[in-house]
Amino acid sequence: MKILVTGGAGFIGSNFVRLLVESKLAQKIIVLDSLTYAGNLQNLAGLEQQIEFVHGKIQDDTLVKSLFEKGITHVAHFAAESHVDRSIHEPDAFIETNIIGTHSLLKAARAAWKDFAGKKFLHVSTDEVFGSLAPHDPAFHEKTPYSPNSPYAASKASSDHLVRAYHHTYGLPTLISNCSNNYGSFQFPEKLIPLMIVNILEGKKLPIYGDGKQIRDWLHVSDHCAALLKILQNGVIGETYAIGGRNEVANIDIVDSLCDILDGLMAKDTGLKSRFPNCPAAKGASAKTLKHNVADRLGHDRRYAINADKIESALGFSPKENLKSGLQKTVHWYLENEDWWRNVLNGSYRQWIEKNYLDRGKA
Ligand code: NAD
Ligand code: DAU
């Protein structure tokens, strides 16, 4: 396959590109990324010989057309604005990239692929398109009606509908995945898990929205990427696959687990204490002392959960990481890659999150 990976310098996209390179399944890998605040070429370090990186937007019709002219047979479409909080404050970019951008790619694929045989367009989407579950509702599945609540979720829902319509109307060979919350290496520290890890290390407050009892279904990014590769190889054209880890956990429990892991590691390792002197455990206290309740996210979805029966039975998918092993690995990755997150934090991100969240007062 000759594959175009959009958003390949972001969190999941870069993990996917790494897996693709390891798999040796692709003769050509082109990564198209506009390097927004969330895109980072360091996420692709070491892969320069195996990929062609193109800096640009998915909405740039001329650029995208020129990439398809290089003989692209497959698309893995990750590029998006992905952070719910940002979509609540500044929704425009979500409409522009997630809806208009996805449509540009669909148009270009349709125009370039005169013959659809051997072609595949995988649209990477989210479980947030389904809305929010009550405590005893059954988990989301491929037939759950759409009911997006945030501007982010609505923009992703809109893009899913466009993809589906391009398959139904023009026969474009599409595949859609709707995955639950990811975590792992290279995740930008504005999302819950990496934000809590770096804040614990730096001795900063851990902002918990509302009562902290909102539930997410966590999946390690390596398992999401493995599932996507299976879909790309063996998924049935025109179908949708729900992906999840069967790991429903309340936010507050995730935060407590991260505090426990870092308290434990610090207690055993004096080197860590001197590297992170502001971390409470370096001074004999628990990271839990940093927990700080803040006002809730507007329109906050209460619970997500995925029923992954279809991908498990049809494609033989099963996650390799459980939440315990995945969180341990993730904490170790952030400890071993301090330069990566310090470089990220030196950017504009810190000011944005402090203005919008840490300074907005207690719940
Ligand atoms: P991310 O924000 O880390 O990365 C997005 C990437 O897209 C960045 O590299 C960014 O520079 C690039 N990008 C943004 N706008 C662009 C544009 N107009 N043109 C080209 N590139 C652009 O996001 P992520 O968490 O890696 O998510 C990737 C995809 O997976 C998204 O489509 C998201 O909706 C979906 N998803 C994410 C999760 C999750 O938990 N993070 C779960 C399910 C689905
Ligand atoms: O479900 C899949 C989605 O998961 C993806 O489509 C999104 O791209 C991805 O960002 C993620 O969305 P969430 O809003 O669930 O993720 P986030 O990490 O922002 O928040 C997880 C939960 O933690 C949510 O209930 C809000 C809460 N939270 C988050 C942050 C950043 C806090 O309590 N405090 C925080 O500081």
**What would you call the structural class?**
alpha/beta
Biggest sheet overview: 7 strands, parallel
Bound molecules: nicotinamide-adenine-dinucleotide, 2'deoxy-thymidine-5'-diphospho-alpha-D-glucose
The strand order across the widest sheet is 3-2-1-4-5-6-11
Overall pLDDT = 95
CATH superfamily of the domain at 2-187 and 219-246 and 303-322: NAD(P)-binding Rossmann-like Domain
**Which CATH C-level class of the domain at 2-187 and 219-246 and 303-322 is it?**
Alpha Beta
What's the architecture of the domain at 2-187 and 219-246 and 303-322, going by CATH? 3-Layer(aba) Sandwich
Secondary structure tally, helices: 13
- What does the radius of gyration come to? 20 Å
What oligomeric arrangement do these chains adopt?
Answer: single chain
The best one-word shape is globular
Residue windows where pLDDT falls under 50 for at least 5 positions: none
Percentage of residues in DSSP E strands: 5-15%
Please tell me about this protein's structure.
The chain has 363 residues and is an alpha/beta fold. It has a domain at 2-187 and 219-246 and 303-322: Rossmann fold, CATH 3.40.50. Helix content is 42%, strand content 15%. It contains 13 helices and 13 strands. It has helices at 11-23, 61-68, 84-89, 92-112, 151-170, 192-202, 221-234, 251-268, 270-275, 309-315, 323-336, 338-345, 349-356, and strands at residues 2-6, 28-33, 52-55, 74-77, 120-126, 174-179, 182-183, 206-209, 215-217, 219-220, 240-243, 248-250, 291-294. The strands form four sheets. Strands 3-2-1-4-5-6-11 form a seven-stranded parallel sheet, sandwiched between helices. A two-stranded parallel ribbon has the order 7-10. A two-stranded parallel ribbon has the order 8-13. The longest helix is centred in the first third of the chain and has 21 residues, at 92-112. The protein is globular, with a radius of gyration of 20 Å. 46% of the residues are buried. Bound molecules: nicotinamide-adenine-dinucleotide and 2'deoxy-thymidine-5'-diphospho-alpha-D-glucose (DAU). Residues 82-84, 126-128, 180-181, 191-192, 195, 207-209, 214, 216, 251, 297, 304 line the site of 2'deoxy-thymidine-5'-diphospho-alpha-D-glucose (DAU).
